[in-house]
Amino acid sequence: MDWRTQAPPQVRDDYDMLLRDGVDAAAKILAESDSFAPFMLVIERTGRKSFRELAQARANGSEQTVTGALEIGTDRGILRARATVFDVTVSAPFTGSAIKAVLEHRDGPAVDVLVPYTATPDDLRIDFNAADGAVGTPQLWA
Can you give the residue range of the structural domain that contains 100? Predict the structure, then answer.
């Protein structure tokens, strides 16, 4: 992705960590269930990391609505980066189930990443090699 060559090292490092940790957290949930409710991983300016989740009943709605429900009013000032992670079904650039990470950073572009997965009662396969990323639309630091 072209954004990587333009982004400062801190942005690349934060996004790599958020994507890895987001996919790992989704995988743990998917190992026990056939889907997961959206959640958010955040990195504060101080480097402190935390996990936010919604009750399943509040996890329905558009991505923007869910992201708003996971936000705290002071996020714009205290956060350095965040990833909102969704369980989605896509028809392009591949077909099937995917973990979608919507990455945002105060010092870089927003990036959306789709990581395909297949789940059966006996197995969960996450295909990082087929991941697809694109510049997204910033919400918090628009």
Answer: 2-135
